[in-house]
Amino acid sequence: MSLIIGTTGSSAVATFYSLQGLTNTVQIFALLLTTIAVPVDKNLSSNWRKLLFGTIPNVLALNFASTANEALLFLLLFLILAMVLLYLFRRAASNYDRYKIIEGLQQTDAPRSRGGLVAITFLLTIIYLPLSTMAVHVLVWSSDLWAIPNPYINATSFPPVVPPLGSPSEFKDPLDFCWTTTMKRNEINFAPALVVLSLIVVGSLAVWFPITLRQIIRQSVPKVDQYSELGRRRNNRELDNEYHRLLSRDRSPFAFLYNGFRRNWATYQPIALFAKLVTLLTIAVIDSDNCLFRNLSRTSIPIVRQVFLVLFTLGFFIAQCVLAPFLDPVNNASEWVSRLNYVLTAVLALIVALDVPGKSIFDTYILYLIFVLTYGFGIYFTVINASLMQHAIKRITRRIDFSIDIFSPRLDVSSNSMHSKRRIWQETITTLFLTNQDCRIPSNQPMAFAQARESEYPPYLLQFRGYPAERHVENIKACFTFQDMVNSHAISLTNGPDYEWFRYLEAEIQQHFIGPDSYWRGSKLPDGVTSPFGNAWWIPFPPTLVIRYDDGPLAVLREIADLEAYIKQNSSRRVHRKREVRMALRALHGQIVAWPYLHITPIGSYSMWDCCQRYTAEDSISFQSCVFRIHQRGHLEWEGLQLGSGFRVELNYARNVKVGGDVIGLNDEYELTPNLAQFISLNQHLIPHRLDYIQETLENYRRHHRKEGRWKLHVLSYRFLTHVFDHPKPSARVTESSIHSEQDLRVRELMADNDIVFDTAYKRWEAVSHSTVTTWWYLFWDDLWRRNSDTIRGLSLHARDFNPYYPTSIAYRPIPRPALEAFLQQRGLYSKQSAIHSGFLNKIYLRLNEIVFAGSSQAIMFHLGGHASEMAMNEIDEETVAASSTLGTGPGTDYDASTIHPRPAYRWEGMLQDKYRASGPAHRRLLSKMGAWLGLTPVWRSAPSTGLALDVRLDHGHYVALN
Questions:
Q1: Residue 178 to residue 167: CA distance in whole angstroms
Q2: What mean pLDDT do residues 576-602 have?
Q3: Distances 809 to 171, 221, 781, 813, 829 between C-alpha atoms, Å
Q4: In whole angstroms, what is the distance from residue 352 CA to residue 363 CA?
Q5: How far apart are alpha carbons 12 and 260 in whole angstroms?
Q6: pLDDT for 242-278, tens place per residue?
Q7: Transmembrane segments in this chain: where (predicted)?
Q8: If residue 546 lies in a helix (H) or strand (E), which one and from where to where?
Q9: Which of 194, 254, 793, 944 has an alpha carbon within 20 to 30 A of 170's alpha carbon?
Q10: Percent of the chain residues topping a pLDDT of 70
């Protein structure tokens, strides 16, 4: 599978869906063909027909068995494979709860095992239909398994008259061939073994696997809050955007099962598996060539079956047309074509079953056409998303891609633009850290983070090995994930006037109040929380204290006042006494404790009516001791000790005699009640040794994280992020700032030894930030180079003229249009047939005109549709009701990605392409996504405008805009 994934594309998940779609098409089509063609090994006069509609579909669909012995062999082999895969899948599924409730500073995903989980699930979906087919055919005992040739074919009477096979003492009746593998009375019949194996297959693979898959997906898929952080109810577009944001940050090992589907359709895969099963049952059960319906009409049964198949495939097709469950348009188109072929094949089979005049045309030429379309489109949609194919299509179509809405007036082109700063200054620093021999991350060093699934708290680097580049990557991840908090709150705490006081609070929390049995009662407890106790952990930057309550909800503290209150609450004598109670009970976990308990069980019987109550009595059993257990909700293991949140007490007296903590007087407030005091007193001799171990382990846990926090701060300070990385400056000031705040010699040397690099980067940034024109001009050519240099040959051929890493690049020299035309023509990049043409240059200089002459009489004005009034670009941006104009202009650009994820066109990316409409509203064209469906472009127009128009005059054969 690794070879297939490597050949077809770079994304394992995208390839998973493509290969799965091809497999579904091949297998279901082969299943439907069995309702048309005669079985592949009997009465096929044409070798080509046998090859096309028998051998090829069945080999591709893994349908090999055609006799009882072959069925037994393949059923046994596939069953062994299925049982192994189901065991591995069940083991991964059983670990899901551990993933879901994992907490603290530990890794939440398992990248090493994720590839194996993808392979296991893929193989299970591949063998699902072939193995289920064999099992169902055994259960209904289809004609392939009959021990004699099918006596119903070409029979002149019904039931058919079949001569005896031999002596009645040696052979069974000729028609007594159901659920037997031999017609001889003295030979072993393997049918019961086949039936038992088939029942196991149906129960485990055909039924249990899809149900479990659905349960895992429903538990794993991100839950979208119907309300925003401001309490406003989200509309459907906002819900979809939030869902996509959560998907992009989802680290669940099961994310590949649902992250290719739209919101509300995450469980599509198990639904598709059940659709396969229903199709199989319809074809295999409603069949006159099995032991269930062999004595019924051989003309009516096929017609009934085909009517069911037509209705089912048609409903399946309509559902795909309406719902379009995939996020990727190519996958939706592939599924649409496949389901259309299912409908056509089912209709064709119905026509053949009805024996309409001219049916020979349908089961020959029309069937050949469907065969070619099914396999042709299946292969096409599988390979079209491959990186090689996408690059080839981009070259052929002369498409130019941008990672941002480059022509939008809302794009940040100020002197402190986040885009230019990232692409020049921050990229330079990051490159130095990642390539320096002393600072870089070793190639075998995994980058694992403890991070919240829905970004409730900042990420924290795990498995830290002391390299400055590790810390730099951690800083960047925190900055990009919590940018606003880093830029305001974190700076004020780590560098403001409260710094010393904050350091005291941090040290106090890390030394005494981290781990289980931490207490926090804010102004209001979260819904569902009955006890303020939980498990707490500290994230140094941005400074954050996280508490996972024993009942599950999460609390996040960031403000100085909250941290002070947290320390005060946990230092109080009242909370300290409650903590001592919990610690004493922890020390008893897993031990046999003394606590008398009388267990009373009513015996006798009762009818449904009280008036008819029969004799009853009570059976009582007296217990003196039990096993004391504490069940945690969360998972945080340290040195063999479970430190996770949750504190559900259970006293286990016998296998079926388990009681809760209320029998010893334990309540939600953990007060030392008389019963609880008596319980602790009875078992006091068991507490000291175990309590010492717990306290020592907890101290080691806190000491480790304090030490790691100081180590990280020593290797690279958090001040570096805010004072150097986010603020371009000359090399002298960079060195000065580093010497002042950095303790690690490697970082100091890196800053001091690369003064030329920093000076060059600063001069580049300074030149680009000289004006809004130079900023936009640089962003345009930089994005053009990054996104298109691998497909536009002229760019890479003249890299010194276009690559922004060269000082000779045009990105640093805005020039007039005639000069740019000449510049491009000299390098073979400007013609009607090239990607860069006169229309493309029109967009460039329209945007430049808006930047230079905005608000003046020289600005080019536009007409929006049939409006007579003239508007500037920013006015049109506010006037239009297309998709959010911040799409493509915000901070989260992916300018270094090799491909574009399928998406609607950015606002101005689309508006400058929309056709002009003088009147009437713009309607979305029915086939507006055809290019995206066929994989020819990753961008489509979702909300077209009425188009833009300019007032121009003809001057010496050229159109000139009127002022």
A1: 19
A2: 88
A3: 91, 46, 9, 8, 15
A4: 7
A5: 12
A6: 888 788 777 777 888 888 888 888 888 899 899 889 9
A7: 21-40, 71-89, 117-141, 190-213, 307-327, 339-358, 365-388
A8: strand 544-549
A9: 194
A10: 84
- Let me know the angle formed at the C-alpha of 506 by 503 and 510, rounded to the nearest 5 degrees: 140
List residues bridging with 450 in a β-sheet: 460
Whole-angstrom distance between the N-terminal and C-terminal Cα of the chain? 62
Angle subtended at Cα 897 by Cα 896 and Cα 900, rounded to the nearest 5 degrees: 130
For residues 292 and 285, the answer to whether their CB atoms sit within 8 Å is yes
Identify which of 799, 874, 806, 871 has the alpha carbon closest to the alpha carbon of residue 829. 799
Return the amino acid letter for 781: W
C-alpha angle 457-462-467 in degrees, rounded to nearest 5: 120
Q: Which residue has the higher pLDDT, 83 or 490?
A: 83
Q: What is the DSSP letter of 649?
A: E
Residue 198 and residue 136 in contact, taking contact as beta carbons nearer than 8 Å = yes
DSSP 163: -
Give yes or no for residue 448 having a pLDDT over 60: yes
Residue 228, both tokens: 């925003």
Could you tell me if 619 and 600 are in contact, meaning their C-beta atoms sit under 8 angstroms apart?
yes
Band the pLDDT of 627: cuts 50, 70, 90.
Answer: very high
For 671-707, give the DSSP string: ---HHHHHHHHHTGGGHHHHHHHHHHHHHHHHHHHHH
* HSE (side-chain half, CA atoms, 13 Å) at 265: 16
Torsion of Cα atoms, 432 then 436 then 438 then 439, to 10°? 30
The answer to whether the predicted template modeling score (pTM) of the entire model surpasses 0.85 is no
**C-beta of residue 761 within 8 angstroms of C-beta of residue 424:** yes
CA 356 vs. chain centroid, Å, equals 49
Tokens of 443: 């190639």
The pair of structure tokens assigned to 743 is 């303790």
- The CA–CA distances, whole Å, from 828 to 792, 793, 821, 833 equal 11, 10, 10, 11
Q: Return contacts of 580-584, CB within 8 angstroms, 24+ apart.
A: 581/670, 581/671, 581/672, 581/676, 581/680, 582/516, 582/517, 582/533, 582/647, 582/670, 583/517, 583/691, 583/694, 583/695, 584/680, 584/687, 584/691
The tokens for 554 are 């999460």
With 0-12 CB in 10 A as exposed, 13-18 as middle and 19+ as buried, what is 839? Answer: exposed
Q: How many helices (H) and strands (E) does the chain have?
A: 38, 18
- Half-sphere CA count of 379, side-chain side, radius 13 A: 6
**Where are the domains positioned within the chain?**
64-100+114-260, 573-682, 788-961
Q: Pick from 97, 88, 114, 98: which is nearest to 219 by CA? A: 97
Least confident window among 112-126, 760-774, 864-878: 864-878
